[in-house]
Amino acid sequence: MRRFGFSTLTFVTIALAATAFADGHAQPAPDDTVKARRALMGTIGYHTGILGNMAKGEMPYDAAMATAAAENISAAATMNRLTIWIEGSGVGAAEGTRAKPDIWSDPAGFETAAMGLETAAATMVMAAGTDLDALRGAMQGLGAACSTCHKAYRAPAN
Amino acid sequence: MRRFGFSTLTFVTIALAATAFADGHAQPAPDDTVKARRALMGTIGYHTGILGNMAKGEMPYDAAMATAAAENISAAATMNRLTIWIEGSGVGAAEGTRAKPDIWSDPAGFETAAMGLETAAATMVMAAGTDLDALRGAMQGLGAACSTCHKAYRAPAN
After folding, report:
1. What is the 3-state composition of chain B as percent helix, strand, coil, each rounded to the nearest 5?
2. Is residue B76 left, alpha or beta, with left meaning phi > 0 and alpha meaning psi from -120 to 50?
3. Residues of B in contact with A26 (CB under 8 A)
4. What pTM, to 2 d.p., does this model score?
5. Are B47 and A15 within 8 A, CB to CB?
6. Residue A20: exposure state from Cβ atoms within 10 A (0-12, 13-18, ≥19)
7. Residues of chain B positioned with their CB less than 8 A from the CB of A85
8. Closest Cβ opposite residue A15 in set B56, B60, B62
């Protein structure tokens, strides 16, 4: 659709020209959103794994590492949900996702569940560096926040 | 190695017993760290793509979506690096990574590069919601921060 030679145009001019011919997608492609969401869940899972392994005694307790893990869960949990939970990127609309339509049909419930993770993660940030007992105490809330949201808003695996 | 019947022990007791027999890994498995780091880069890439597509006119400018994307890049950029850039998870020590040994042999240089992304992301958070011109202006700094770090600390693709 582009009618201009690229070599004769500056970046900005190209950008403006492309605007004129843009096909109007107002949001990222669903497949990209699914990948990004899975990446974010991977980030949360990795850091929860560190804390969980410390809680279970499978990794030596390290206050700095535990605090870093908690901070990163909190950073992921508090990310702006607008780019991540885009309607049309759930089960039935996109591949490779277990995001249930309830996320969009019950936005208040989903927001409550998401806030539950934000709160549990903030609690973990305060607890993780204190000692192993405090970490273990906060782990229960963190696990509960994960499972509460997954039970309501994540479809079963296959 | 466990000598106790699980059914007779509480979670905490199991955890303490497991501590005694833990094999002493003081950090996550390198493969897990690589996956988590790639996930984080995926999160940054997805959101940079949103801003880049708006800058190029391939996605309609949307102040809220642009701000959300910038906030999420900033959240990812400011994550605690302790769990993500673990020595022994780079090229030569782990599979599926392009993280160069220079990250650990030149920690001050790497920190400067990482801070460059933090600063560029913070600038984008302020600019993205203003208007498309402001977004485009901040995009140059963001792209420069990405490429500065990648040139120095990411190995070429195969």
Report:
1. 65, 5, 30
2. alpha
3. 59-60, 62, 65
4. 0.85
5. no
6. exposed
7. none
8. B56
Residue B37 has which token pair? 């780091």
Tens of pLDDT, residue by residue over B10-50, are 333 333 333 333 455 788 999 999 999 999 999 999 999 99
Helix (H, G, I), strand (E, B) or coil at B3: coil
Instruction: Report helix, strand or coil for B103.
Output: helix
**C-beta atoms of A28 and B84 within 8 A:** no
The pLDDT value given to residue B19: 38
Token pair 């969401």: residue: A37
Mean pLDDT is lowest, of A25-39, A64-78, A117-131, B69-83, for A25-39
Q: Which residue of B has its CA nearest to A125?
A: B80
* Spatial separation of the C-alpha atoms in residues A69 and A65, rounded to whole Å: 6
First to last CA, chain B: 42
Q: How far is B23 from chain A (nearest CA, A)?
A: 7
Instruction: Tell me the ipTM for this assembly.
Output: 0.85
Find chain A residues with C-beta within 8 A of B68's C-beta: 80-83
Phi-psi region of B44 (alpha: psi -120 to 50; beta: other; left: phi over 0): alpha
Query: Band of the pLDDT at A75, cuts 50, 70, 90?
Result: very high
